[in-house]
Amino acid sequence: MSHNLSHTILHSGSYYYNRRVPERVKEAFGMSAVRLRLGRNEDEAGHLAIHLTETLNDLWNVEDVRPVDLSRLIKSVRPEQLDLLQCTDDYLSTRNIEEIKPGSG
């Protein structure tokens, strides 16, 4: 199975972001390579890889390069997964609907 996602590899059904840190920023960035698991879904992995590439390019092209929390960066892009109970709670909260307690009405 082949894929065309930039800076990614496919291993055992999971996509991984795999990119070398440029020599000129290795020391300041605090690592020599970026390796992160993006998940099994090709569309989601592609979206994350594009975002990571753009963000890292921006970070590495400034004069004062600093390390970044890569897991937080991924989390900020990855869609939040909600269960039915969380959706219900969010809906009730947004609509300002109070919970009806047994025996109160």
What's the layout of helices and strands?
Layout: E1 8-11, E2 14-20, H1 26-29, E3 33-39, H2 42-60, H3 70-77, H4 84-94
Antiparallel strand pairs: 1-2, 2-3
Folded structure, characterized:
The protein has 4 helices and 3 strands; from the N terminus they run E-E-H-E-H-H-H. It is α+β, with helices and mostly antiparallel strands. It has a 3-stranded antiparallel β-sheet with strand order 1-2-3, covered by helices on one side. A hairpin with a 2-residue loop joins strand 1 (8-11) and strand 2 (14-20).
Q: Quick summary of this structure?
A:
With 105 residues, the protein is α+β, with helices and mostly antiparallel strands. It has a domain of 72 residues. It contains 4 helices and 3 strands.
Give the neighbour order of strands across the main sheet.
Answer: 1-2-3
Q: How do the SSEs run, as a string of H and E?
A: EEHEHHH
Query: What's the average pLDDT?
Result: 85
Shape: elongated
Summarize this structure as a short list of keywords or feature phrases.
three-stranded antiparallel beta sheet; single chain; alpha+beta; 105 residues
